[in-house]
């Protein structure tokens, strides 16, 4: 497991078990050995045909682990509770989950349910997110916050005011100064006394990629001048008592507690100033940004890693707020945070299959190929060839490489001019490969073809160079003998993973067993992408019309397999994904069937068989199907 740094990024949830498979420890350090879940067993259960007791799902597969989600939530709460208790802080912590990190129904419902004992709430940044949060919080703790962030129009604000009428603990956070007039007017029109928050633009700047929205020139929030104008206006409207929350967001993936302390201290000063100006301040909402150690280095020296744990994060926050408030003799506020990445990243694993790998052909040369070199080369190419042979005879390796390059370039030019045949060009390629091999300059990195779309399932890798731990989920008791990059199914040169968390441009991988699993031969080779539970599902697109993966929700159970699949969602079919782009698969099918009747009869084809094949293609997922799972589709096109 050290090859893949699993102990670094995986602890306390992921490790390698005695069978050499990746195992999940659903309760972190509190997991007992018999409670560990073998990921390969989940994949088998999910993908085996229904006739053999499986669920018949097609890969790729997201394995959702609600126990891990619960553990993350409870760990966050207990880190703040401990810091509050040990520092004598005189209020409490009450977090919210920003639904934009993963809006999946089960994720949000789980968070509301698991967080209910400690009043955990939700944050929304758009109208549909607000609708979602309102619906889910009806089942939650009545004191849980519903924080409304993001740019707002009258409809958004009315919806938030209605949420307050429905006795949801809603706070409208002003993201722009212009929103205030709407809040004042609409709350009067709807006869609701709103609770208002304000997002402040801090001067503290997080310099990494995720900090581009922070600092004075950041995209969001109110400047000092605007904050003062808002206070004045609220006072004039006799609504200063409605201003109760100060919000800010330093940026995602905050690298160090030093930066965190800086930002929180600045914000706590603003909070105390608002108290001085007469607002009815109760809550400091520190935004998100608690980081994840994707590369397991705990160094904090790149955007992939952070140099603190949950406990240090919480204690820095509590300490910074307490120090400022004590100095200003201000009552300690409720501390709210909007951690997203830190809550949901660990809870899901994306599993996909490597279906084939480019083979490394050991260079060799047959007598016929040698003859092509002797007889087929043009005069100028033959000079390079002779130079190459002389250099090889003298043992001058650098010169060999140079002449091989020149020979190849010359022959490619001749081929383009139509003066050289394909056989001669292939013989030259073979000779150059032999020279490289003899001199030890062979590029042994292989390409593993994976049944996945990176644009759909790992969009941050493509979009912002974010790296995630990727590991084979089995055969980890065997030393990998190959180095490879991963190439996806899309017709796009960006659809490959060639950078990994260890800083290298290839991944240690195992030789595939037998032929491609697509033709029904050979063993399967499954890889897992870990820590991708935040953002990836929401950001993924439909490039090449690949759809989202199948999903299983898996809970620890004390039964024979130590797990139970509690929910199954097959990935969208080709028909589903065509509908996303406004096509009408039903009509398309009818048109194609009609055409089969028209032309198939002429050719004496089995028209019924063609129609069935077409229907099945609409029903199946867009991903490659292994020979045994070709007929998995269900339902109507
Ligand atoms: N709150 C706000 C306002 C944000 O903009 C973000 C993310 O950008 C978050 C919370 C969540 O941040 P993270 O996932 O880094 O905790």
Structure explained in plain terms:
With 637 residues, the chain is α/β, with parallel strands linked by helices. 39% of the residues lie in helices and 14% in strands. It has 21 helices and 21 strands. Mean pLDDT is 92; it is low at 630-637. Pyridoxal-5'-phosphate is lined by residues 98, 101, 149, 249, 252, 287-290, 338-342, 534. InterPro entries: Ala_racemase/Decarboxylase_C, Arg_decrbxlase, De-COase2_CS, De-COase2_N, De-COase2_pyr-phos_BS, Orn/DAP/Arg_de-COase, PLP-binding_barrel. It catalyses: L-arginine + H(+) = agmatine + CO2.
Q: Looking at the structure, what is the overall shape?
A: globular
**Radius of gyration from the alpha-carbon trace, in angstroms:** 30 Å
Largest sheet: 10 strands, mixed
Report the uncertain regions. Answer: 630-637
Alpha carbon gap, first and last residue: 44 Å
Supply the number of structural domains: 4
Helicity range of the residues?
25-40%
User: Which ligands accompany this protein?
Assistant: pyridoxal-5'-phosphate
Q: What is the strand tally?
A: 21
- Name given to the CATH architecture of the largest domain: Alpha-Beta Barrel
Give a short synopsis of this structure.
The protein is of the alpha/beta class and 637 residues long. The chain is built from 21 helices and 21 strands.
Q: What descriptive keywords fit this protein?
A:
ten-stranded mixed beta sheet, 21 helices, 637 residues, Lyase, Ornithine Decarboxylase, Chain A, domain 1, binds pyridoxal-5'-phosphate, disordered C terminus, eight-stranded parallel beta sheet, globular, TIM Barrel, alpha/beta
